[in-house]
Specification:
The chain is of the alpha/beta class. The protein folds into three domains: 264 residues, Luciferase, Domain 3 (Luciferase, domain 3, Roll), CATH 2.30.38.10; 187 residues, ANL, N-terminal domain (Rossmann fold); 128 residues, GMP Synthetase, Chain A, domain 3 (2-Layer Sandwich), CATH 3.30.300. Helices cover 35% and strands 21% of the residues. It has an eight-stranded mixed sheet with strand order 9-8-7-5-6-10-11-20, sandwiched between helices. Strands 1, 2, 18, 19, 21, 22 and 23 form a seven-stranded antiparallel sheet that branches. A hairpin with a 5-residue loop joins strand 22 and strand 23. Helix 2 packs across helix 16, helix 3 packs across helix 4 and helix 4 packs across helix 10. It is globular, with a radius of gyration of 27 Å. The protein starts with 10 loop residues before the first helix and ends with a helix. The N terminus is likely disordered. Keywords: Membrane, Transmembrane, Transmembrane helix. One of its GO terms (biological process) is phenylpropanoid metabolic process. It comes from Paspalum notatum var. saurae. Its cofactor is Mg(2+).
């Protein structure tokens, strides 16, 4: 599960998660240590000799015809999965049926706000601190009742049935209730990131002709400043999560403005019959925070979302009413929306939190009170790699600071468990692992509440080291997923018993995954030892295209002769012998960094070439890092002129290119060019290498038209690029 080709909601969340969220490890008793060491020596040899790893076939070749390529499907199903159960063909039907089936079980939970206070720092800044209590729950029956009331209330307040409603809010219970209410009246929901900039917000609302906007109080305050630009907006529904000033409401008198509660009450006293959708109707137009201009709206049908839900439900083991899910990632992103839909279909409890209140030491949690995970004690979570990386780095830092016996014992236990996972006896029956888990890793598990049994990671590549950290220190499988908004998050998903790293698993049961040769880039399905090519996804999870953008839709969506709809992702993948997919490259020059931000290499290069020091430049982004780097062929005359005026002595141009002051001067010039072009911080190369030799068609590094041959440059300077990241 993952993102559209131009999105990112997670960098802002990552900034809110502090390394102080990780508690100090406990000192360990020597008696426990002695027992652990004794068993550590005796048991592993016997277990390793008794059990051997077996390669399980997870995907098989699918004969679906269509364009040339290697197509795989999940091996556990002969046909694609379309619905979780009979009759659940739409989001509205799925929620209604689940609400009847699990009517008395916990559904949506929100923590009670006990008090809110502001603390002033020494520099005069004020910080909000929250004292939050226990979770207060709506049962499935109550949540469904609220959604029905909200649906009726929307119509009664004047929302037209032929227009769109938008949700512009942080993740919370009201988000889901509002969305389900819209689905019951077959209203298409436009989703917008709460962090979206003003221009993108106006564009999204105007392009989709939104007449009703549902927002939280924080987003409400943004509306008066852009009200004159909003062409179709008529109604505002605001969630009362914080007090709303009368002045703010007075500035919006030209709109019908009601609180969320008022709309629910209106619907409760004046019921409107449901107008249920079909599976082909558009449920959501999902806008992404575009990296190359204004965002695109992906049209997701009810059938797309239901198919992804049905498929994921077959992957997570023993999913059901005993599970508790922590919801904190943006619901305006397909990753979180799909995950919460899976929970609703399974009867699991969804407890809402935030990155600012997640742990006992999170920024907004009042000292001495508990964070979300401590109160909720979730069994299931999803995350993006950067958040898991932050947890891993903080734990290792704390262990290093502790030193002595604690560090030695931690390192020994970590390495023993690593050997167990990568050896032959990872599983529930592994006595040594159980000992280390209880003695060493238990306090680390408390970071996430102590009960997490499965973590799904998506949105960007997860490093092997971090995946192993989660396996060892949390003792849980990490399901790495791959997908895009255009595939409704559904493409590939690693299964719970697959302990390999670096892969994203076999195709989800709702879709096919095909590799199509990309000769220009040197990736073909005939490659050895593994077939490689552009990843193309087809099946029930493939969305309808881009709203009001037929040209772009036709460019990347194709329907074959058998009626199967395919999406060309632009990603390069390879199939392992067991049918699992690994993403190894990106066809286009857009790369997603570790935190989820997209860097359009061509756009950045175009901006940076305005520097007087640049003759040619190639920006490179490694998805396992949160910054990009660049190879720069300097304009010789400009650089030498600067060196002379600065009194820099050098033997030749090569020596000048290696001079630290020269590198700093060029980098500062690039930063100025980037600022002038309004590039984001993550788009500005953090490190550069100056190269003496120019890139010419004769060198094979540029075309006759002097366009970069990116793959050839990457190959030639592979070692140099690696050094820039180390």
């Amino acid at each position: 599960m993952g993102e559209a080709a131009d999105s990112d909601p997670y960098a802002s969340i990552l900034k809110r998660i502090s390394t102080s969220d990780v508690p100090l490890l406990k000192e360990y008793g020597l008696s426990g240590v002695a027992v652990a060491l004794l068993l550590a020596v005796a048991i592993p040899v016997l277990l390793s000799s008794l059990f051997g790893k077996k390669m399980k076939k997870r995907a098989v070749v699918a004969d679906v015809g269509g364009d040339a390529g290697l197509t795989m499907r999940n091996s556990r199903f002969s046909d694609l999965v379309q619905v979780p159960w009979e009759g659940a063909t739409t989001m509205a039907a799925l929620f209604e049926m689940a609400s009847k089936k699990y009517s008395r079980h916990k559904c949506l939970g929100t923590r009670k706000l006990i008090n809110r206070e502001f603390i002033e720092s020494s520099d005069g800044r004020k910080f909000e601190k929250l004292h939050l209590g226990e979770y207060e729950w709506d049962t499935y029956a109550e949540a469904f009742y609220r959604a029905c009331n909200f649906a009726s209330g929307l119509i009664k307040m004047g929302h037209r049935l032929d227009s769109h409603a938008a949700i512009f809010s942080d993740t919370r219970a009201e988000w889901i209730i509002a969305a389900q209410g819209c689905f019951r009246q077959n209203l298409t929901v436009v989703t917008i990131y709460a962090s979206l900039g003003e221009d993108a917000l106006v564009h999204s609302l105007n392009e989709t002709q939104v007449s009703t906007l549902i927002c939280d109080s924080k987003q409400l305050k943004k509306l008066p400043a852009i009200s004159s630009k909003l062409q179709s907006l008529r109604h505002i529904v605001y969630i009362e999560d914080e007090p709303v000033e009368a002045e703010t409401l007075n500035q919006m008198k030209h709109w019908t403005t009601l609180s969320f509660t008022e709309v629910e009450e209106m619907g409760k006293t004046s019921h409107v019959e449901a107008r249920l959708p079909s599976s082909s109707d558009t449920a959501v137009i999902m806008y992404t925070s575009g990296s190359t201009g204004l965002p695109k709206g992906v049209m997701i049908a009810h059938g797309n979302m239901v198919a992804t839900t049905a498929a994921v439900m077959t992957i997570i083991p023993k999913l059901g009413i005993g599970d508790v899910y922590l919801a904190y990632l943006p619901l305006a992103h397909v990753f979180e929306l799909a995950a919460e839909t899976v929970m609703l279909a399974s009867g699991s409890a969804i407890g809402y939190g935030s990155a600012l209140t997640m742990t006992d030491t999170s920024n907004k949690i009042k000292k001495g009170t508990q964070g979300d995970v401590s109160v909720l004690k979730p069994t299931l979570m999803i995350s993006v790699p950067a958040i898991l990386d932050r947890i891993r780095d903080a734990v290792f830092k704390k262990v290093g600071e502790k030193g002595g016996l604690t560090k030695k014992l931690f390192d020994f236990a970590y390495n023993r468990n690593l050997a167990a996972i990568e050896g032959s006896w990872f599983g529930s029956w592994a006595p040594e692992r159980m000992i280390w888990d209880n003695i060493i890793f238990k306090p680390i598990r408390a970071i996430l509440g102590g009960r997490v049994r499965f973590v799904l990671c998506g949105g960007a590549p997860l490093s092997s080291d971090t995946q192993r950290f989660m396996n060892i220190c949390l003792g849980v499988p990490v399901g790495q997923g791959y997908g895009l908004t255009e595939t409704c998050a559904g493409a590939a998903f690693s299964e719970w018993d697959d302990t390999s790293v670096g892969r994203v698993g076999p195709p989800l049961p709702c879709c096919y995954v095909k590799l199509v040769s990309w000769e220009e880039g040197g990736y073909t399905t005939s490659d050895s030892p593994m077939p490689r090519g552009e990843v193309v996804v087809g099946g029930y999870s493939i969305t309808q295209g881009y709203f009001n953008n037929e040209a772009k839709t036709n460019e990347v969506y194709k329907v074959d002769k058998r009626g199967i709809r395919w999406f060309y992702t632009g990603d390069i993948g390879q199939f392992h012998s067991d049918g699992c997919l690994e993403i190894i490259d990106r066809k286009k020059d857009i790369v997603k960094l570790q935190h989820g931000e997209y860097v359009s290499l061509g756009k950045v290069e175009s901006a940076l070439t305005t520097s007087s020091y640049v003759d040619n430049i190639m920006v490179y982004a490694d998805p396992f890092h949160n910054y990009c780097v660049a190879l720069v062929v300097p304009a010789h005359q400009a650089l030498e002129k600067w060196a002379q005026s600065s009194g820099i002595n050098y033997k030749d141009l090569e020596e000048l290119c290696q001079n630290d002051q020269a590198i700093k001067e060029v980098q500062q010039s690039l930063s100025k060019a980037a600022k002038a072009a309004r590039l984001e911080k993550f788009e500005v190369p953090a490190k550069i290498l100056l190269l003496r030799e120019p890139w010419t068609p004769e060198s094979g590094l540029v075309t006759a038209a002097l366009k970069l041959k990116r793959e050839q440059i990457k190959t030639k300077f592979k070692d140099d690029l690696n050094k820039l990241y180390h």
